[in-house]
């Protein structure tokens, strides 16, 4: 029953961080151990997706229902796959430096073997996962977009 909670400040606006976390089909491009992602349905507030994780000799696919509460929260509800349960929440709170990311994950595999193997690297894997989202946000939006003026804040020049 590994659980991990982490808070981190990212120098990006909540909307930008939200977009990266909600862009599930791109996870294999940057997320460690994510070897496949397929979005089965999507609208503005919800998506259903299959993610395939690969670690050593293991390869498992699971389905999740993801609730998108723009721009401050993403909640993952496990539907089917190798877990007994999976709870995952991203809370994105605006702060002067950008966004405070409050990440929580709790899960248990059905297989004791898989639980034992993943359990040994779980904390490191979740830290790497949060860091991968941070790096992806920097890659897509630049290193410090929270400090950049928004279009409405850019002074107009006299013509």
TrEMBL record:
GO molecular function: ubiquinone binding
Any GO BP annotation: cellular respiration
Gene3D superfamilies reported for this sequence: 3.30.530.20
Domain Coenzyme Q-binding protein COQ10 START residues, every copy: 12-134
Source species, domain of life: Bacteria
Entry-linked Pfam families: Polyketide_cyc
Protein family according to the UniProt entry: Belongs to the ribosome association toxin RatA family.
Identification of the protein by name: Coenzyme Q-binding protein COQ10
């Amino acid at each position: 029953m590994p659980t991990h909670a982490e808070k981190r400040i990212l120098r990006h606006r909540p909307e930008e961080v939200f977009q990266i976390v909600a862009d599930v089909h791109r996870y294999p491009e940057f997320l460690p151990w994510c070897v496949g992602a397929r979005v089965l349905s999507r609208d503005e507030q919800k998506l259903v997706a299959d993610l395939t994780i690969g670690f050593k000799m293991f390869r498992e696919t699971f389905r999740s229902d993801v609730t998108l509460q723009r721009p401050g929260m993403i909640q993952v509800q496990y539907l089917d796959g190798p877990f007994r349960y999976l709870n995952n929440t991203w809370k994105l709170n605006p702060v002067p430096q950008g966004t405070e990311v409050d990440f929580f994950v709790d899960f248990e595999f059905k297989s004791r073997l898989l639980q034992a193997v993943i359990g040994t690297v779980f904390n490191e894997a979740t830290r790497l996962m949060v860091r991968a989202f941070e790096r992806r946000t920097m890659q897509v939006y630049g290193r410090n977009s929270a400090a950049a003026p928004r279009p409405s804040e850019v002074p107009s020049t006299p013509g």
